[in-house]
Structures are given as structure tokens and as C-alpha cells.
Amino acid sequence: GENVEQHPSTLSVQEGDSAVIKCTYSDSASNYFPWYKQELGKRPQLIIDIRSNVGEKKDQRIAVTLNKTAKHFSLHITETQPEDSAVYFCAASSRDSGTYKYIFGTGTRLKVLA
Amino acid sequence: NAGVTQTPKFRILKIGQSMTLQCTQDMNHNYMYWYRQDPGMGLKLIYYSVGAGITDKGEVPNGYNVSRSTTEDFPLRLELAAPSQTSVYFCASSLGQGGEKLFFGSGTQLSVL
Q1: How far apart are CA B58 and CA B78, in angstroms?
Q2: Half-sphere exposure in the Cβ direction for A90 (13 Å, CA)
Q3: CB–CB of B48 and A98 under 8 A?
Q4: pLDDT in tens, A38-67
Q5: Residue A112 and residue B109: Cα distance in Å, rounded?
Q6: B interface toward A at CB cutoff 8 Å?
Q7: What is the rounded distance in angstroms from the CA atom of residue A9 to the CA atom of residue B92?
Q8: Nearest Cα to A21, choosing from A114, A113, A89, A98?
Q9: What angle do CA A27, A30, A33 make, to 5 degrees?
């Protein structure tokens, strides 16, 4: 079945350093790749997304890259700050029977050390 | 707009009991979803709906049922609760038709003892 693998499961970085989270998907029909941030006890919230016709997208300190050939996409956070500490989920979405089904990765717990 | 509203926020059930998790959205979204999130795990799709009267199974549908009688509401029914259903449940919605951003509710923490 469809699967999204996410690595690492935990990541600790010093404040100001960069963080990279990687995901691999299995369904070649996937065409939309969002990233969600979930703070402790809160709901997941979209932070950035990319479509299959784009190789890279950037929004201030956050960027996402996509390699369709390798079925691989990554989240890059530069100049990390303590408020970046959270769990980050990647997801892949494909159109199936007229709807968009999202398959999520298992999450990465990012800790930014002050 | 309130967005996606879930009730209750917390619930403790005994094994074998039943309950309904409520979800309503006021954004006129066509697509609605139910996910469960186990500790340290990602989000698993239980059921989804593309519009009123239409529902379909996700990755982990066993032990659950849904209905979608209106665009706004998408309740999740647990019959004969089991400890394996202890989890945090999130309802989500999206516009669909190219508007793929998911809007999540605040979640329901369910314990089955």
C-alpha cells in the first residue's frame, strides 16, 4: 500500500543551526506534499507545501525540496529558534477516486537547544 | 469562522461501551477526514468523505463507523470500544478541488480502560 517514511524520528540542534527532515513516498501518483507542525497538545498546522510540478519552495526560514525521480522530499529550517521546537509531519497526497487522500509520515520531534 | 470544531475534548470509556465523536466545520468544505494519532506515531486515516452522503474507508477503519448527512457534520462512531482504540482523534476538512490544505480540529483524547 501507500507509505511515507520519515527520518529522523528525533532531532536536536543548537539555536541558530539548520535542521533537515527527510521523507520518502511510495506512490508515484502522489502530487502534493505538505508539511505540518504540531506543538505539544495542539493540532497540526500547515507550515509549507509543494506540488509535484515544482522542485523547491521557500518561505522565510523554511524551505521544501522535492525530487520526484527519487520520490523524496525534505524540509529545511534555517536559523532555528526555540519556538521551532515541535513535532513535524510530512505527508503525501494523491488523487484517488475523486478525492485527495493524505498519507502521513511518523513525525520528527525537533528540539532546538538554547 | 470557528473552523473545525470537535467534541468532546477528553473522554474515558470502559471496554465495550460505545460513543460518538462529533465534528463540525463552518467553512463549507467538501472533504472531511478522521485521523487517529497514537503516541509517538503519525496520523492514520480512519474514514473520509468527499461530500454529503458519501464516505469511504481509510487505512484503519475497523471498529469505527461514520456518516455524512450534511456538509457541515462528520461524526465518528465507536462501537464496542477496545483498549486498542485509546488514541487522540483529529477531525479535518479541506476545500477539495485543488484546495488541499487540511484544517484540523483541536482533537479528542480518548482512553478505553
Answers
A1: 15
A2: 30
A3: no
A4: 999 899 999 999 988 889 999 999 999 999
A5: 27
A6: 31, 33, 35, 40-45, 48, 50, 56, 58-59, 90, 94, 96, 100-102, 104-107
A7: 24
A8: A89
A9: 120
